[in-house]
Amino acid sequence: MHNLNFITDLASPDLDPYVRLTEAQLFHAKGTQDGLFIAESPKVIERALRAGYQPASLLVEEKFLDRDLDDLDHEMAMNQTEGLGRTPIYVINDQQIRQLAGYNLLRGALAAMYRVQRPSFADFLKALPNAHPRIAILEHIVNPANIGAIFRSAAALGIDGVIVTSDSADPLYRRSSRVSMGTVFQVPWTYIDAKIWQTEGISLLHRLGYQTAAMALRHNTIRIDDPQLVKIDKLAVILGSEGPGLEERTIMQSDFSIKIPMATGVDSLNVAAASALAFWELGNRKQDN
């Protein structure tokens, strides 16, 4: 039995997380230990639940109520995920939605979920189970869609963990998690403060046994399919901002700079596309056979 609450007043504070609070305000939401985020669609919500995130509430459009709850219940049953219990489910009708300018529920149910505390940079790396890990470092990547796409590629192509600098878009932003199809809840990840990353990030990686490969063009850049990269015991692939790319300091301190071979006249790819190619070549891909 679901805990349904039919909304009669759009000014209700119960709707604040969905229609009035910004991503930053959700991050620092009052009454929570680590903040909130919004998960969008039954598939994304179920993956978040399966990963251990706890829902504060759900928001569903009345005409799609049965569809969305059936989808969510099915996903949870298929994956043996604990149900919603007495989590409040707020229901609004299509007339109310039209009064919320620029807002829709076309992608299905939304859930406000509690964030969890992230481990430190060092603790995160030490906890990775793979003896020969491949990780990605995302430096100042500010587009949430790119963050989501990179996580989706990381999940599909054998990246064991992702480190996100604090000046990047947040992987739990609504657009990030939606574009990732919920894989932000599957791939282990954590943050590193941007200032700490710039001053000692690569040194910390080196002390933990990692070699680093910065995706950047230099006179000594090697191809991503260079055989010496495959032999590295612990490898961190570093991807940079959509515009200016990686910081010069990051490139200079890295063990390698790597490139994707391209046709004449083209010097770069979108960072999300570049990540997919790099992860395909360098990740620990799981083989079906």
Automatic annotation (TrEMBL):
Q: Supply the name of the protein.
A: RNA methyltransferase, TrmH family
Q: Which UniProt keywords apply?
A: Methyltransferase, Transferase
Q: Name one GO biological process term.
A: methylation
The record ties this protein, via SUPFAM superfamilies, to: alpha/beta knot, L30e-like
Pfam families, alphabetically? SpoU_methylase (PF00588)
Any one GO MF annotation of this record: RNA binding
Q: Which residues form the tRNA/rRNA methyltransferase SpoU type domain?
A: 135-279
Query: Which organism is the protein's source?
Result: Limosilactobacillus coleohominis 101-4-CHN
